[in-house]
Amino acid sequence: MDVKRIDQGLSVTGQLRPTDLSEAARLGFGSIICNRPDGEGADQPGFAEIERAATEAGLDARYLPVVSGAVTDADAEAFGVAMRALPGPVLAYCRTGTRSTTLWSLDEGRRGRPLSAILATAKAAGYDMNGVARRIASGGRVPTDGAEASHTVVIVGGGAGGIAVAASLRSRKPDLDIAIIEPADVHYYQPGWTMVGGGVFEPATTARTMASLIPDGVRWIKAAVAAFEPERKAVILEGCRVVTYDRLIVASGLTLNWGGIEGLGETLGRNGVTSNYRYDLAPYTWELVQGLRSGRAVFTQPPMPIKCAGAPQKALYLSADHWRREGRLGNIEIDFFNAGPVLFGVKEYVPALMEYVERYRAGLHFGHTLTRIDGSAKRAWFATKAGDGSPSTVEVPFDMIHVTPPQRAPDFVRASPLADANGWVEVDQASLRHTRFPDVYALGDACSAPNAKTAAAARKQAPVVAHNLLHDLGYVRAPHVAYDGYGSCPLTVERGKILLAEFGYGGALLPSFPSWFIDGTKPSRMAWFLKERMLPPIYWKAMLKGREWMAKPKAAA
């Protein structure tokens, strides 16, 4: 009996035998639902046998047979009624558990649960419900309407990657039919939040209305994506609205998993707990830095991948530099807890960074993952390994803690046919085209390419996707171009100096400037000037406008 838990009230399994019922009772189930019609298989016990054994084991049993591949709306409704009437938890079975999971999914859709959550829950149990995604989104019923809209190019996401690739496409072919699907009203320049947390930028300078940034001639569909149907060239929106496409570009970004750390949600923004990874919290970081006179300041970094891998230590450096300038550094103990094994993934930049770690007397703790936090008690707990390799937990007191949350692809991406084993949109790392669905491209944080997840990467990826997509549509004759994995991380080691890390696939150094102007392996004031004064206007006025300054794509080898 291979039992797979769907949620607290339901588990599913394949065909049960009468001898399995006593074990089901021992596992704590209160009822059995049979979703397999009698006589479907030659070696299948009839429901009467199952019911008799269930009764002997003290379990309720219900017979709700469903023909494979022909689940009706009435079937799903009856399943939901039985689930709420029978003693729980319920163990439902069919031949493999798929029909039972389908019935649960459709019933959850009827009850208003978000499609992405239903798909993700089912996938976690080992069941792919994308085949009935449109029905789930339609309230668990067979939809009667067709596509709401159809466009040549549909872009999912209005962040850095989505707006940039739309602008790059329009700059190459101004009459191209493009739609952007994005539910948010505000677009953020997220690389600026580190500077907000360091007292350099005002928060308002990092935000603009989405409407002001959507390129002219591009339709804005203000909605949330629920699922993808790449076989049908369709995107399902929440509410079962459907948009079809000739080409799809996924630039959905990633999700900050605040709930992945126990207790974090209850204390964020107070009790000395902050994060530069949220617009409304970055000012609180600066407030804490200014107010801390003595005590312990803790900075954390979760397992990779994360958005801007240098951001956790950027917060540390700017904070420590302020305390040094104010003469408080000797009274403040600084610790950096990193889930990874090294300070920075490209070795050429580590020596300069270590000089600042030593200057600020920061303690480095590798292989430590933040798992729980109690803000009111000013305590944090990290999972690590003891000297013998066994799991261990370390309790750390703090007066201030800057938390970088664990990160993952959005649920509607992770549960979709587009995802790889890790949940990211599966693309060829050079062309950024999907490896299994040739009509699909992806860029930015959501794609599987093994580059650093930074806005600088999206700036270089957007022209690659635009060129290759238009080539595929027959509008561009020049050969395909390739993305080299470029990413940039301006490491703010002190106020007024930055270590400009620029690198590509395999950690190859990819400097944009000659070393006499900016040597990326050494902190410089020129790099700070670039970060503070030049990069914001380059972002707003070039990258998001299709002006590819220093971002022209190169032909594929």
From TrEMBL:
Return the CDD domains for the record. Answer: PTP-bact
Q: Where is the FAD/NAD(P)-binding domain?
A: 152-271
Domain named Beta-lactamase hydrolase-like protein phosphatase-like: which ranges?
2-107
Instruction: Tell me the InterPro entries matching this sequence.
Output: BLH_phosphatase-like, FAD/NAD-bd_sf, FAD/NAD-binding_dom, Prot-tyrosine_phosphatase-like, Sulphide_quinone_reductase
Per its record, how is this protein called by name? NAD(FAD)-dependent dehydrogenase
